[in-house]
Amino acid sequence: MGTEYNVELTSPEIADLWTAYQADSMAICGIKYFLTHIDNDDIREVLEYALKLSEEHVQKVTEIFKEENYPVPQGFTEHDVNLNAPRLYTDKLYLIYILNMGKYGLETYSLALSLSERSDVIQYFTTCLNETEKLHNWAKEVAKEKGILTRAPHIPKPEQIDFVKDHSFLAGYIGEQRPLLGVEIGSLVYNAKRNALGQAIITGFSQVAQDKKVRKYLEKGREISGKHLEIFSSLLNQDYLSQGTTNLTSEVTDSTVSPFSDKLMMFHITTLIASGIGQYGRAMSTSPRHDIGVKYSRLIAEIAKYSNEGAKIMIDNGWMERPPEAADRKDLANKKH
């Protein structure tokens, strides 16, 4: 590989590094708090490894930005976490949370890697991807050992290959429904699991939020995630398939003392929503059945509206750090007059 000289970061490289800094600085706050209230040693080791990765990632991105004379983001600091707050979640939820964050990391790092062009950035995201793969697989094995991992349902083995012969394969309304495809089942189970976790996380947040508007917003999110969980589960139930998940709100304690700043909790929820919109879109693109596509489209619109409401709250409170953006050429031109 040839040496690169004076190669500036491209817009996607800056954006992906900036976003990674935000996510990892938030993760450091969360995992440090989790580690102050944990009983299981196997889950503790997974969390400690996850914390180590996030700290190393923040350090590396800081170095890259400083070398480029690019402002290092504020992200989240020790001021956004109260390590003395009582336990809010169980060890089980910690592990499920890390599993989900591992999936999110695999998706975001692989996309960031595909968009990177400068050698050091390519190496950084390659390392992140490899480390996240290790974390995700480790957490999955621990979840299996603890009986926490809920497997997706099975489908029968066909006796021979076959071809679609009827347009009803695409339909999905009453009286015309074909059984779910394996790819549709996978997406429904994944999205059911995400919403079960999201409902539990946001339930805890709604108990401890300080600002009244934030608390009301989080309570609305708790209801939305619960409704989405029911929709995905009902589609699986129609074909007598297991849901592949369970309700996780029982893994939230009754604490009302906040371990996190309202700013951090709002950022966390908007990040989960953004990821959810992307996952719903991918699920819709791989499902030929019309009724499922319509459901995903409607759910995307609902959570996009909810995300916009959250963004307004963050802006009103001065919590939204401005992401990297292009120059405003019209504004620059106007300043000349």
Automatic annotation (TrEMBL):
It holds the Pfam family DUF3231. InterPro entries: DUF3231 (IPR021617), Ferritin-like (IPR012347). It comes from the Bacteria. This is Uncharacterized protein. It comes from Lentibacillus amyloliquefaciens.
